[in-house]
Specification:
There is one protein chain. The chain is an all-beta fold. It is built from no helices and 11 strands. A hairpin with a 4-residue loop joins β7 (about 65-70) and β8. About 35% of the residues are buried.
Length: about 120
Amino acid sequence: VQLQASGGGLVQAGGSLRLSCAASGLTFSTYAMYWFRQAPGKERDIVAAISWSAGSVYYADSVKGRFTISSDNTKNTLYLYMNNLKPEDTAVYYCAADPSYSPVGRAWNNMDYWGKGTQVTVSS
């Protein structure tokens, strides 16, 4: 299984980015997909999650109304649309996959698969 995240970069506050996570080696629609982020010196925290089988999406309070998670199962690709970015959104963003969909309070260290991170830097 491989997860490849991309799309990070440097953007000014108020700007937008779209992150992508291309998955291979797993049946995409049968996994719950997650985005986490880790800022320097901080824990890796959940940002958003999506489950086709549960018909559900989840957002951390800090990104509600600004970020949108979606997936294209025909392309085995997960997306994170990030709008109205703030300096506090600066972090390395990771995608992850797990058979279980349980995003509330989800710890980062019990996910089946991880992609390498992509850096997002928001300047003020």
